[in-house]
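EI: anyone free to look at a 387-residue chain?
SC: sure, send it
EI:
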Amino acid sequence: MYKYNCLNPIAKVGLDMFSEEYVKVDDLSQADAALVRSASVHDLELPEGLVAIARAGAGVNNIPLDKCAEQGIVVFNTPGANANGVKELVLAGMLYASRDIVGGIDWCRDNQSDENIAKTAEKQKKNFAGTEIAGKKLGVIGLGAIGVLVANAAVHLGMDVYGYDPYISVSAAWNLSRSVKHISTVEDIYKECDFITIHVPLLDSTQKMIDEEAIGLMKPTAIVLNFSRDKLVDEEAMVKALAEGRIKKYVSDFPNPTTVGAEGCIVTPHLGASTEESEDNCAVMAGREIRDYLENGNIVHSVNFPDCSMGACQTAARIGVLHRNMKGRIGQFTTILGDNGINVSGMTNQSKGDYSYALLDVDSEVAPEVEEQLRQVDGVLRVRVIR
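SC: here you go
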């Protein structure tokens, strides 16, 4: 019997992924796995029996990844599950920033008591005139699941699309429209594009990557869209540039005291992935990831350990060993098993930075004392035997 805990409400369609062998518990200390959306995990005491955390979403800033890795807790996310919802909002952001749709809506509301509002509107609408997006240059920084969808959709809307991503995956490259122009330096995006949208993870290397210097390279008519993380942009510098007329608009999905109400800022209340479809997709993917890890030992879409999969376990047992990326560990594991008369019929080991994960299929049961011998190997963080 497997036990799971939900740190946030998770869509029912995701919880329906769990079979009758799973039971939901209210106390994290009793859980084998946890599912989370926005709740902070940083200050929680993570129980020894917790082996996995699945974030129903892409960002994992609310989870202490290194702490989890050192405790042998695999952290999953759900990349791409909410991509379409975010893509649609980015497109909407371009439209309501290029044409003063928000201002027009506010004007209609403010003048709702005017019996002649239709005639008055004809005189006032020039105050809300804007530009079309067709024919304009869009720069997409980051060509992951969301960036690719935005770029491809913009091509179909008649935009001239430029993409920047020095780490683009093979899968993303295959899915990217051939009409998207690959740009090798992000500075060219800043200089050339009418619209700039950023879709990269928040890391030490990307924090405030759109800073005063980057803004200084942009056209005064440029529109910057941020539906990834507010800290990717130096928002103090952005607000200052807007007030000085050095840039046209900043569209953000992350309200805070710096941007809300500031001149030239259009801010929405973190609506990017807030669709029924996105929440369902994320919950389903998170449920599948948890099940595959608990039942088969497979890691797919982890952010703190390498992805490593051997399909369904069809042997007498499968051993999963989370360990530090150190020389000679695999030899030690197989020696221990061999000395105990256990034949290894299949094996794989993958590494990611400081951490590795080994999966070993064996032809006989693994006694508790053998598990303990594996745990005593230097650098081993956790050993799981899947039967």
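EI: The longest helix spans residues 276-296.
SC: 👍
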